[in-house]
């Protein structure tokens, strides 16, 4: 017999394991995989009533499936959304969210910094159907304000963006978009719901590629669209039901199992990404490092307001353009060259020749994508191995070292594991000199094990899901002789 549902709000880690759980009468422990295309009815009358909506019964896996429903409910619970529908891919989710809402004569305003396929939908596909489109620089609120002087039906944006990790002020843009009559669709794939929940900042719809962090192990494809129950059921569902971007039950089940460890994988990957970003800022071969939680990021303050951590991706520019970037990529011996991201394995790509190769060169330049830009998706390997791999490959990119034989020998890099240093007194801060190209990599330093510190990342994530508490009346006094209990 099934347990009654908890009457208390559940935390993210619990939602990722138990959200949407729906056991069959066999009382299985793991989520059941309903690998079926269709369903049977007890009678012709039940079949008729199912199609008229008089009774609830599974019809066809393109419309819905118990395994798929569990995934949708788990995602909605994690995101804080009323409803969710999953799709075969992330791009199916993006295109469905837009095409279900739009018609000829409508107008779309989009952030210029979009994934290549999203950029193509806005720039090329939508105009074919009589839909006007306009791009703005996502970080420039003045451009958004100008664009919203005319009526608009939909806004599409990414934050952080792919690949340059540009931030968009979700609250400000959402408020302006709503005044112009538009819904706001946010591609939140780089942040995941653990780091950023756009609905809390005023967005209307959130889309994901579940292929990335949610599966997290490079196995299957999937996408998701989340929003209000009314919009999902009345606007999105008729479109997806009749156009068929359905996910397979097997893929949904695989993603369900991947989600069980999302709260363990994403924090670890974020910590490694932050350490790598700090290391890259010291390298002479690197002219720019993009990471939202680096103080050098132009929107560092906004990132700290909207996100619980800096994310799992780091983008950086290598001096010497494409030739040097290719030397660097080819010299890596642990990190793989791949255009995917959010995987347990660290993956790296050259956006100008892969993910954004179909974007015009002048548009890439406006996005800040140079011939030397590379995007690193940080995985779950030991961060010391990743830092060693990157450092040696940067030497090769500068022409000062030959590629090494592939090796995964373990080491501990002091800087990667050391706690943050205390800030220097005001007025005495001195920039750290970059290590000169070709200089020897410091020998690894063994360190004694340190007692574990409180997981501040977990507290930050929990804060995303905590509703604001009403302040206690200032004049209320505690009874004499008793101490008021905080919280």
UniProtKB/TrEMBL annotation:
It is an enzyme of class 2 (transferase). One of its GO terms (cellular component) is cytoplasm. Keywords: Amino-acid biosynthesis, Methionine biosynthesis, Pyridoxal phosphate, Transferase. GO terms for molecular function: carbon-sulfur lyase activity; pyridoxal phosphate binding; transferase activity, transferring alkyl or aryl (other than methyl) groups. Residues 467-480 have a biased composition (Low complexity). Its cofactor is pyridoxal 5'-phosphate. It catalyses: O-succinyl-L-homoserine + hydrogen sulfide = L-homocysteine + succinate. Residues 412-487 are annotated as: Disordered. The modification N6-(pyridoxal phosphate)lysine is found at residue 212. Pathway: Amino-acid biosynthesis; L-methionine biosynthesis via de novo pathway; L-homocysteine from O-succinyl-L-homoserine: step 1/1. The keyword Transferase applies. Pfam families: Cys_Met_Meta_PP. HAMAP family: MetZ (MF_02056). This is O-succinylhomoserine sulfhydrylase. It comes from Teichococcus wenyumeiae. The lineage of its organism: Bacteria, Pseudomonadati, Pseudomonadota, Alphaproteobacteria, Acetobacterales.
């Amino acid at each position: 017999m099934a347990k009654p549902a908890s009457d208390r709000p559940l935390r993210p880690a619990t939602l990722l394991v138990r959200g949407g759980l729906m056991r069959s009468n066999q009382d299985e422990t793991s989520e059941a995989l309903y690998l079926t295309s269709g369903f049977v009815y007890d009678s012709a009358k039940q079949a008729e009533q199912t199609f008229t909506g008089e009774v609830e019964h599974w019809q066809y896996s393109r419309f819905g499936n118990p395994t798929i429903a569990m995934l949708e409910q788990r995602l909605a619970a994690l995101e804080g959304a009323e409803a969710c529908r999953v799709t075969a891919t992330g791009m199916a989710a993006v295109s469905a969210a837009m095409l279900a809402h739009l018609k000829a004569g409508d107008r779309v305003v989009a952030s210029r910094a979009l994934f290549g396929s999203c950029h193509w939908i806005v720039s090329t596909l939508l105009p074919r159907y009589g839909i006007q489109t306009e791009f703005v620089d996502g970080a420039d609120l003045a451009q958004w304000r100008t664009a919203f002087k005319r009526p608009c039906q939909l806004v599409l944006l990414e934050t952080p963006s792919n690949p340059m990790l540009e931030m968009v002020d979700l609250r400000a843009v959402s408020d302006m978009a709503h005044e112009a009559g538009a819904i706001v669709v946010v591609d939140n794939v780089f942040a995941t719901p653990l780091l950023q929940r756009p609905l809390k900042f005023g967005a209307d719809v959130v889309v994901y590629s579940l292929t990335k962090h949610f599966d997290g192990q490079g196995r299957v494809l999937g996408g998701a669209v989340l929003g209000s129950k009314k919009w999902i059921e009345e606007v999105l569902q008729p479109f997806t039901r009749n156009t068929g971007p359905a996910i397979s039950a097997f893929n949904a089940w695989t993603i369900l199992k991947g989600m069980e460890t999302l709260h363990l994988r994403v924090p670890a990957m974020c910590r490694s990404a932050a350490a790598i970003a700090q290391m890259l800022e010291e390298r002479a071969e690197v002219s720019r490092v993009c990471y939202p939680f680096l103080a050098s990021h132009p929107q560092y303050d906004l990132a700290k307001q909207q996100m619980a951590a800096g994310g799992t991706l780091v983008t950086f520019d290598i001096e010497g353009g494409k030739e040097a970037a290719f030397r660097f990529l080819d010299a890596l011996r642990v990190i793989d060259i791949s255009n995917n991201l959010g995987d347990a394995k660290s993956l790296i790509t050259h956006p100008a020749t892969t993910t954004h190769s179909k974007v015009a060169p002048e548009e890439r330049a406006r996005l800040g994508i140079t011939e030397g830009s590379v995007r690193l998706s940080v995985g779950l390997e030991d961060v010391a191995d990743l830092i060693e791999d990157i450092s040696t490959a940067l030497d090769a990119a500068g022409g000062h070292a030959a590629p090494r034989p592939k090796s995964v020998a373990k080491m501990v890099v002091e800087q990667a594991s050391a706690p943050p240093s205390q800030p220097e007194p005001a007025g005495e801060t001195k920039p750290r000199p970059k290590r000169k190209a070709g200089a020897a990599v410091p020998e690894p330093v063994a360190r004694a094990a340190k007692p574990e510190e409180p997981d501040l990342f977990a507290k930050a994530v929990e804060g995303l899901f905590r509703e604001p508490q009403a302040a206690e009346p200032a004049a209320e006094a505690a009874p004499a002789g008793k101490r008021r209990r905080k919280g």
